[in-house]
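Tokens for chain A. Residues wanted.
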């Protein structure tokens, strides 16, 4: 059997070609792998080593350098993932006898807790939205109410069809990830704002006011998609946060989804019901909100219990 030839200086290009041809990886994905591997290549060059021949000690030294530079563990883990796939490819092609990444432990990531707004902050946000005049105000307060009342993802919100709310119903049938449908109940405030918005919706349609062009979307737009974009919704919410005296960096559509979940859990909702409302495929994703609720309870005890050592004057 003919022994495979050693890798050429184009081993990285061969790997990227494999990603494209065999895995149908998107251009952005291939570019990200290329950046990560070339960064490691630069590190190896300074150590007078080469990319295809790197050993486990070199990889550990590289990860230690990333940690020393303050790189987030999640980003370092992504870099290591690129290295794993690259060296697995070299071993599969017979260009290496071993995979040096097998001996490397992934950085400990922890599980980041979601950003949370308090109930009082959400009320301030909604009250500020209700003050805004005209059709723009009616639309924004409706979107904010729907996000907080239903826990919709922003992609689900902007792609809601008009048919989802034109009938006199108290629930939304939402098509979520993977095309799966779920039923989400609507609150009275959300229903009230919807009715007001629907009377002004024609102002967002293309064409003359007396003969606007029809649109299948609840939140139509003159953009390419035909409906409001996720980016635009996020911008509008950040502007609203500034008006309400809340740091805009703390507010986004996803933060309102987190607020919906954590506030429901705080008021006694069970995890299974919450999982269905959020459209999570796995309940482990929903369980992160138990950690949020736990931290809030710890803060409550620490700040207000009469025997707390951290309390002023205690």
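Reply:
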């Amino acid at each position: 059997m003919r022994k495979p030839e050693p890798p050429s200086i184009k081993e990285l290009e061969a790997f990227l070609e494999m990603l494209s041809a065999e895995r149908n990886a998107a251009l952005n994905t291939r570019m990200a792998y290329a950046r990560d591997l070339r960064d490691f290549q630069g590190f190896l060059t300074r150590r007078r080593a080469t990319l295809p021949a790197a050993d486990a000690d070199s990889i550990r030294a590289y990860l230690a350098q990333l940690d020393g530079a303050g790189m987030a563990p999640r980003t370092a883990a992504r870099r290591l993932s690129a290295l794993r796939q690259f060296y697995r490819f070299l071993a599969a092609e017979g260009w290496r006898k071993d995979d040096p990444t097998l001996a490397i432990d992934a950085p400990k990531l922890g599980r980041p807790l979601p950003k949370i707004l308090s109930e009082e902050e959400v009320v301030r946000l909604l009250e500020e939205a209700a003050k805004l005049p005209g059709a723009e105000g009616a639309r924004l307060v409706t979107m904010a109410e729907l996000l907080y009342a239903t826990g919709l993802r922003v992609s689900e919100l902007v792609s809601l069809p008009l048919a989802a709310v034109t009938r006199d119903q108290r629930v939304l049938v939402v098509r979520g990830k993977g095309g799966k449908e779920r039923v989400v109940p609507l609150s009275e405030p959300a229903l009230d704002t919807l009715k007001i918005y629907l009377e002004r919706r024609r102002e967002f349609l293309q064409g003359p006011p007396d003969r606007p062009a029809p649109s299948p979307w609840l939140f139509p737009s003159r953009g390419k998609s035909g409906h409001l974009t996720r980016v635009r919704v996020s911008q509008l919410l950040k502007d609203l946060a500034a008006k309400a005296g809340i740091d805009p960096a703390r507010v986004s559509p996803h933060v309102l989804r987190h607020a919906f979940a954590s506030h429901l859990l705080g008021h006694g909702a069970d995890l299974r019901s919450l999982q269905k409302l959020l459209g999570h495929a796995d309940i482990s994703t929903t369980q992160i909100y138990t950690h949020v609720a736990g931290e809030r309870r710890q803060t409550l005890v620490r700040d207000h219990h009469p025997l707390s050592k951290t309390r002023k004057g205690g």
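The radius of gyration is 26 Å. The beta strands are 171-175, 181-185.
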